[in-house]
Predict the 3D structure of the following.
Amino acid sequence: MFKEINAHKVQEMVEEESVNVVDIRDPGSYSAGHIPNAISLNDSNVKDFIEKTDKEKPLVVCCYHGISSRGAAEYLSENGFKEVYSMTGGFEAWPD
């Protein structure tokens, strides 16, 4: 089960380095701009990510507008991550 989280709270967690962030947008959008230290997650690297990432550390999933991140957050939660969040509003909500 995942929870919703707003971009300002994610920003605080990123600054404290207390969270892993994954960005599920397409590579071009990720390249054009992303949350600091966010990992670009896609079909080709998701299995490796699940196997090698600390499942105890909180995980935030970011997409374009906060819709598709919900499904990805649910999937990652089902694959062993203990504390998973979907970022409300997606990257569009990220403070400049």
